[in-house]
Write a structure and sequence with these properties.
Elements lengths: L1 E3 L1 E4 L5 E4 L3 H35 L2 H9 L1 H27 L3 H38 L5 H13 L1 H16 L3 H25 L3 H23 L16 H37 L1 H37 L3 H28 L1 H7 L7 H15 L2 H16 L3 H14 L1 H11 L5 H29 L14 E8 L2 H17 L4 H22 L5 H5 L2 E8 L3 E8 L22 H8 L2 E7 L2 E9 L5 H9 L1
Parallel strand pairs: 1-4
Antiparallel strand pairs: 2-3, 4-5, 5-6, 6-8, 7-8
Helix pairs in contact: 1-2, 1-7, 1-8, 1-10, 2-5, 2-10, 3-4, 3-6, 3-9, 3-10, 4-5, 4-6, 4-9, 5-8, 6-7, 6-8, 7-8, 9-10, 9-14, 9-15, 9-16, 10-11, 10-13, 10-14, 11-14, 12-13, 13-17, 14-15, 14-17, 15-17, 16-17, 18-19, 19-21, 19-22, 21-22
């Protein structure tokens, strides 16, 4: 693929056009806060349950909730594989402009979430006692664990469907609504924690019941989405493609689900080793570290999850520069978030321990907790990058590498290191805490080595495995929504087309079409913006010249505006001399999609089918 990234023209080359990350950056930022709020809501329930139980019931309740973490993680695996997997497939389909498949996968994903939820609820009536016995191993905490985990089984349909649906809503370009679903769920959870535990005295059972109540409330918020005018995904029977769709959903969501499953195994081993090494205090400190990780994951995971649907959509469009812009933005945010968390954990160690119920009066427990937080905190920046790598490979369809990253981080290194180092350095569990740092470093090294080997085998330039193509020549630019640059874009595109084998007619109509369509974006997409706010906006224009056709894509993040359908303020909607109608006549096809909150207009020109009269008419206009 020959790609011209910078174009200079004018008497003194005053204007330079290049593809920038401005549009992707704005869209990432728009999705970031709602996604962090989603991540916060998903993590907050367990964190709040732990804090309230520790303060009003005792540290035994905190330890019992931590022992239930494997069950909660198993639930997370189910809604991840069906929610994250399905929504990522939907995002990729939207990028490929396959709306029909996106609707079918959306429908199937929600059906599977509800069906599996009901099945787990029914099984829970029989399995809850056995599960409680298994994870508590006959300890004094078994009764507390049963009281907590049984409620989770009974609320499985809500625990699966609500977060899973939130992922699909986000893929539909509504991150604020998706965040609102989970925020409402956890506001209700927090309120009910106070009512059930403090007012009604339901103890640890009240904490689980509060979470269940919150997710039921979240469902009613989600239900309102189905009647929203902003919803673009529609219910459509999957039909004959059901089995292939299920396979695609499961394989795409496998890294996210596997992350939860391996966390189950990791937590089980950590709890066992900590109990054997430090006694009951070990379970409390592991619970403390787990809650610290959950708190950090709100921001680290939120940034990585922001990248996932946006990158999947861009990858579906084969927009490699857009994918890399998204990755760079995500890396920056993840590093900033993880470093802030590291500073908090290193400077305010005692306060963090006290927040989770560790008393200053218990000197030994406080010292172990401080040591654990200090050493564990060092792993956070590396953890953030490793998690980001997993999400990147998941979004770009490199599922094997995503699984490598997940297994390396969740099982391959941490489990043997904890088993070995806990015996080598048993004092205050120091061997356990340093295992986190070493395991994350080894995970990163493994992913880079495997990525290099895979890149060499596939002929890719680097570990990102984004391949270029020789099938077309490409112009990829961004322009600010300002009159001088809009006027100049036509000349830029005409020169590029002429220099790369397109006829004069093709070059002319492509350039003029781009100018008119960007003007249309200015008038209808950003029409009410003025001054500095308007100048901050930009439009991405991509031209691909194939042997038989020229394809132009214009993308902006203005208000929804389909130039093929929307009413014109100037009354020219049916005027045959109107620029939009001219573009429709002189092109082979014009397509419009509203994807991830962005307008995407695709115009194609078949070299052998160009209407010369139409081209001349366009030139005259």
């Amino acid at each position: 693929m020959d790609s011209i990234k910078t174009i200079s023209f004018g008497e003194a080359g005053q204007i330079k056009m290049a593809r920038t990350g401005a549009l992707v950056d704005r869209k990432f930022t728009q999705f970031l806060i709602p996604t962090i709020l989603m991540s916060m809501a998903l993590q907050l329930g367990t964190i709040v349950d732990g804090i309230i139980c520790a303060q009003f019931i005792g540290t035994d309740a905190l330890a019992a909730i931590n022992l239930c973490a494997p069950v909660i993680l198993a639930f997370g695996a189910i809604y991840s594989i069906l929610g994250v997997g399905g929504s990522t497939v939907v995002s990729t389909c939207l990028g490929q402009r396959d709306k029909d498949k996106a609707d079918r996968v959306y429908t199937l994903g929600l059906f599977l979430l509800l069906t599996v939820g009901v099945l787990v609820m029914l099984l829970g009536f029989f399995l809850a006692p056995a599960v409680a016995h298994f994870i508590a191993a006959g300890s004094s905490m078994e009764d507390l664990v049963y009281k907590y985990v049984s409620i989770y089984f009974y609320g499985a349909p809500a625990f699966f469907l609500v977060p899973g649906l939130a992922y699909y809503v986000r893929a539909d370009g509504n991150p604020t609504v998706s965040a609102l679903i989970l925020i409402i769920a956890n506001v209700v959870n927090l309120s009910c924690d106070v009512i059930y535990i403090i007012v009604f005295g339901l103890g640890i059972r009240g904490a689980a019941l509060a979470s269940c109540t919150g997710y039921v409330a979240g469902f009613f918020v989600a239900f309102a989405y189905f009647f929203s005018s902003k919803r673009t995904l529609k219910f459509k029977f999957p039909g004959g493609g059901t089995l292939s769709f299920i396979k695609e959903i499961l394989s795409t969501g496998l890294p996210s689900a596997l992350n939860s499953v391996l966390m189950f195994v990791k937590m089980y081993v950590l709890n066992k080793v900590a109990l054997n090494t430090l006694g009951d205090a070990g379970a409390t400190v592991i619970a403390l570290c787990n809650n610290c990780l959950s708190f950090a994951a709100i921001f680290i995971g939120g940034a990585a999850q922001t990248m996932l649907p946006l990158m999947a959509m861009l990858n579906g469009e084969n927009d490699n520069p857009g994918v890399m812009f998204t990755l760079k933005k995500a890396v920056k945010v993840v590093l900033e978030a993880s470093c802030v968390m590291l500073i908090i954990f290193e400077l305010f160690t005692t306060s963090v321990a006290m927040l989770f119920g560790v008393s200053l009066a218990d000197i030994e427990l406080m010292e172990v907790s401080r040591l654990a937080i200090h050493l564990f905190g060092l792993s956070l920046p590396i953890f953030g990058i490793n998690y980001l790598l997993m999400c990147f490979y998941q979004a770009t369809g490199h599922k094997a590498l995503a699984i490598v990253a997940t297994v390396a981080q969740g099982l391959l290194f941490i489990v043997p290191l904890v088993l070995i180092l806990s015996k080598v350095f048993p004092y205050r569990g120091i061997g356990i805490w340093i295992s986190f740092v070493i395991a994350e470093c080894l995970t990163m090294a493994t992913v880079f080595v495997v990525g290099k080997i895979t890149a060499a085998k596939q002929g890719a330039d680097n570990i990102w495995l984004l391949k270029s193509s020789d099938e077309f020549k490409e112009l990829d630019i961004s322009i600010n929504v300002k009159t001088e640059e809009i006027s100049a874009v036509s000349e830029c595109i005409q020169d590029f087309c002429s220099q790369n084998g397109a006829s004069d007619y093709i070059a002319t109509v492509t350039g003029l079409s781009a100018e008119e369509l960007v003007y249309n974006t200015l008038q209808n997409g950003y029409g009410k913006q003025t001054g500095k706010k308007l100048a901050q906006n930009s439009v991405d224009i991509n031209i691909k010249i194939f042997d038989e056709e020229v394809v132009m894509r214009i993308r902006d993040d203005g208000k929804p505006c389909n130039p093929l359908e929307c009413d014109r303020d100037d009354g020219k909607a049916d005027d045959p001399t109107d620029s939009i109608n001219i573009v429709k006549k002189i092109s082979s096809s014009v397509e419009y999609e509203r994807t991830m909150g962005m307008n995407n207009l695709i115009v194609k020109y078949k070299k052998g089918e160009l209407n010369a009269h139409g081209a001349a008419k366009a030139v005259t206009a």
